[in-house]
Specification:
This protein is an alpha/beta fold and 424 residues long. 44% of the residues lie in helices and 15% in strands. It contains 17 helices and 13 strands. The chain has a six-stranded mixed beta sheet with strand order 3-4-12-9-10-11, with helices on both faces. It has a five-stranded parallel beta sheet with strand order 8-5-6-7-13, with helices on both faces. Helix 5 crosses helix 9 and helix 13 crosses helix 14. The structure holds pyridoxal-5'-phosphate (PLP). Pyridoxal-5'-phosphate binds next to helix 10.
Length: 424
């Protein structure tokens, strides 16, 4: 079962909920995040799995087998995880786990697609309908829109700041999808986030049965364990696992996989110029700061939302023992992209490059010489400006090219709830 990070003692036990409730609610009623009250062990035979969806079935059945039939879980995994996440050898003892072969070309497809199918399954049993409301400045919106499109009993409403997302991102957001409506808001990303927050508290929106799909939802997190396990099978030996991080959902999933019994040589949290978590790991106080904009914009997070979960699950001292932190500037990111390309021909997107740089620094500091696995979180074709800044050739991706031909649907609105309500 799942309990709130903010409940204590008996209240925590009394507030324990099953996966379906945690999935549909998103946040605990006291404002905390849902965390597992215990972690199941990996089932025997998991390492004989022959695909991402097969290993996902093993892992998710260990977590959810008492709430969903194994057949249901296997069906959801096969439908959601119908793309591969290969381990690619880049240089001596350096591997990347490419998580960007899903429909919107970021690792967020894994969590969003799987979560959407669990939600649709749970809702069909209850004959309920929900509207997922998301504010997005980047990869989340397209992964959620794509993952939930066409799923029964679910509508999606996307808000993004007009003129403040890249051309590629916008194309991914506004392509016409069943049950999805995109709104370009005449304002900033903060305006969009404020509107979402207000809508959840506004009685005029009650009839929409609003729900969220951001990375604080445990339903997005659990499926992400699968690709760590699948990487472990592909690699065949333990590695240092480096996670390019923003809200720390991805790292949390990796650590839960390790709690289940997956062996690593430790974790490395690779952040850009937003150092909140590396600072905590270095023993500093938790310092709230403004968000710094960088070339790895999906990791531009001032205070990572999953930090509350990590601290609850492990405590600071254990985090310091199991995870090393690292920060990387934009200049270092571009330099890494260029050098890796020159030395190996591998084209890393800016987020992945932050991870590769973190490994290099960690090796220099710690003397670690064993294998390192960097999670490649996005396809480089999504970041033409960064590629050109780093002096790399333009990259193409079929999934982006086909969008040029597809019909688009978007409405422009003022940054006000009344305007949004009028359009819905
Ligand atoms: C969302 C995202 C991240 C950060 O992941 P978290 O789980 O928030 O730490 C890193 N890279 C890319 C490309 C992303 O879209």
């Amino acid at each position: 079962s799942f309990i709130s990070t903010r409940a204590q003692g008996v209240a925590a036990e009394n507030g324990a909920v099953g996966f379906t409730t945690a999935l549909l609610k998103g946040l605990a009623p006291d404002g905390g995040l849902f965390v597992p009250s215990s972690v199941p062990a990996l089932p025997n035979g998991w390492s004989a799995a022959a695909s991402l969806s097969e290993v996902a079935t093993h892992a998710l059945t260990a977590w959810l087998g008492h709430e969903f039939e194994q057949e249901t879980i296997a069906g959801i995994a096969a439908d959601a995880l119908n793309f591969d996440t290969p381990v690619v050898h880049v240089a001596d003892q350096l591997y990347v786990l490419e998580l960007f072969h899903g429909p919107t070309l970021s690792f967020k497809d894994v969590g969003a697609r799987t979560m959407a199918r669990f939600m649709a399954n749970a809702l069909s049993g209850r004959e309920e309908h929900v509207t997922i409301l998301v504010a997005t400045s980047g990869d989340t919106g397209s992964a959620v829109a794509d993952g939930f499109a066409g799923q029964g009993n679910i509508d999606v409403v996307l808000l993004y700041p007009k003129g403040r997302v890249s051309e590629v991102q916008e194309r991914q957001l506004i392509v016409e999808r069943p049950n999805v409506r995109a709104f370009s808001v005449e304002g900033t990303f903060d305006d969009c986030q404020r509107m979402v927050k207000e809508a959840f508290a506004d009685p005029r929106f009650e009839r929409f049965n609003l729900s969220s799909a951001n990375s604080i939802n445990i339903g997005r997190l659990l499926p992400q364990m699968s690709y760590y396990l699948w990487a472990g099978i592909q690699l065949g030996e333990p590695a240092l696992v480096c996670v390019p991080s923003g809200n720390l959902g991805n790292l949390t999933a990796g650590m839960l996989a390790s709690d289940m019994g997956w062996t690593t040589n430790g974790f490395l949290a690779a952040h850009n110029a937003n150092p909140f978590f590396p600072d905590v790991l270095a023993g500093h106080e938790e310092r709230q700061r403004g968000t710094v904009q960088t070339a790895s914009n999906a990791m531009d997070v001032g205070r990572p939302s999953n930090y509350e979960r990590l601290r609850w699950l492990y405590g600071i001292e254990t985090l310091q023992r199991r995870v090393a932190g690292s920060t990387t500037s934009d200049a270092e990111t571009f330099e890494t992209m260029r050098r890796v390309y020159e030395e190996s021909g591998y084209v890393a997107d800016p987020h992945t490059a932050v991870g590769i740089r973190a490994v290099e620094k960690h090796r220099a500091q710690s003397g670690y010489t064993g294998p390192a696995l960097v999670l490649a979180t996005a396809h480089p074709a999504k970041f033409p400006d960064a590629l050109s800044e780093a002096g790399l050739p333009v990259q193409m991706a079929e999934a982006l090219e086909v969008l040029r031909e597809k019909p688009q649907r978007v409405q422009s609105i003022q940054p006000s709830l009344s305007d949004l309500l009028d359009r819905l």
